[in-house]
Amino acid sequence: MASSDPSKRPPRPVPWTPAPESAAMPPSSWAKRTGFRPKFSGETNVSNSDQIKSPPQPKSREADMTPDLEAGRPRLGPSSNGEPTSGRPPAEKEKEKNPPVKKRRDSNGNKNSRENVQPVMAAIAEEGSRRPVRNLEGDAVDVLQRTVVDDDGFVSRHTNMKYELRDTPGLVPIGLYGFQHYLSMLGSLILIPLVIVPAMGGTYEDTANVISTVLFMSGVTTLLHTSLGSRLPLIQGPSFVYLAPALAIINSPEFLGLNGNNFKHIMKELQGAVIIGSAFQAFLGYSGLMTILLRVINPVVVSPTIAAVGLSFYSYGFPRLGACVEIGAMQIVLVVIFSLYLRKVSVLDHRVFLIYAVPLGLAITWGTAFLLTEAGVYNYKGCDANVPPSNIISDHCRKHVSRMKYCRVDTSNALRSSPWFRFPYPLQWGTPVFHWKMALVMCVVSIISSVDSVGSYHASSLLVASRPPTRGVVSRGIGLEGLSSILAGLWGTGTGFTTLTENVHTIAVTKMGSRRAVELGACVLIILSFVGKVGGFIASIPEVMVAALLCFTWAMLTALGLSNLRYSEAGSSRNIIIVGLSLFFSLSIPAYFQQYGISPNTNLSVPSYFQPYIVASHGPIHTKFGGLNYVLNTLLSFHMVIAFLLAVILDNTVPGSRQERGVYVWSEPEAAKREPAVCKDYELPYRVGRVFNGIS
Question: Mean pLDDT in the chain?
């Protein structure tokens, strides 16, 4: 054995001999054993206690210079993000100060390497304590470094989180934080109904009823997910992943010439498509096929796919906002000021401007528009804002009809016409209608939705849980999201329900990861859904303000998608090319399909901002099977589908190391069962857990 005294150290390496068996050690994470602190895949929270007892595998000294993500071996040189990582030199310097306490076999089995693990741990821990950590207050990214490993070897409380997954600080704090959590995600919950219901020809009353239904289903499905799904504090709601296919179905050729109540007819078609697509997603999760799909889903795939979802609506955002540019621009400027310039301003120890940027900006803009309306700024002599544009004869009134309709805040009667009490019930719009071509489109979209949720599961678990979930827990969560979307289809929300991508940003900003807070907020949301005036109030938000909020929300969604690259080597030429190709062609290929067969003089049957969703009537694919034409033209016009296909093919065929790709590291079931903290995080409630085999 090598002596800890440098003066007595032999001049040349001595052949390696096995160390005597030591007492059994408690289960611990490899992050504690080695001090490995990466930023690319969240392995800080993953343990692999079997590595200690595994027989040594011969490797060359060069192999020791590269990291092994499964064994957590430290390496020399800069990390993927440019920061130095600890390795052998710090251990050599610290051997005199930290004599070995317990000797183990070197994990790489090199007979010429006889370093002791404990001094390496001590040196890395000391270096990590001296290394300055960037202040994460108010930042939504890179919150993976500040973790604490307790004496039992488990990763304990993240120092930047106020409350973690199983914390229950009391009824009042839980209520306040739960309300804060949902209010910060208000835009993601209510904006989709404000887009699709008017597109279906629905009235303000229809919009209010759909919003109430969305609030009700969001509360119910969130409770189901935190109890029987992944059990992470993730709010469920209508996802923007489903918005593009919903608009494509709404603008299908067979619906353009409908007379009568278009809203109910198209809603029943949407319900049927959502139910079939969600049943496929549930099968994907509960059958175990999702665990196979997880092998090809990595940050380089998730990042461009989710970014493409946000970028795909660029043709809708500002063109709608431009109908009353002074109100819409004011809304965007306020939200940007609150979320960026005032993000570090605290009131009663709360970053109110950062957390409530969207509702604060909406309230101020709405109040300003109300004052301008009451002051008569948008009054024009002889013109009535309530007269349909088709009935206006005066050229003077026709010139100002857009400003009267979109700048005024008194054109909606949704609040006045809404009842005080309304109970959302299943099949409220009628019996769903099923068509295989629309259902097939939704089945493909459900896969994209699952990819989105996988990224959210991984990122949120690094913030609030002791370790990432197992593949079985991820698959279970995807299966429950499928069941939740089936319920959403039966109740008639117009879109499927899934984990909202904005969850990760909200958890990082509010520092609230308590499961109980999210559950209490879900209960409050269910109660509010019974108050019809709440839906009516939200439905009365002027369309220009909705468009401004959508611009900010879609930009955030794009940024959150790209932020997944922090788990990989973002500076790698391999990853840069894959992401760049995926994003570029996700914009260019759909543009080809959307513009095919349309000349400048073509009279479109829909507004220009809905033009990308009428591809089924003029796409380039023409076969003798009309249904196949519809499916292929529609799917290939979706930006997210092209981004996903290119990214998943390139990332899984182009050679690259696990570190370079940032491969997601999920917990192994057997190792997770040995750690009580992991079992408590992800196990199903007692009686249900016995039936479904816990966390595996």
Answer: 77
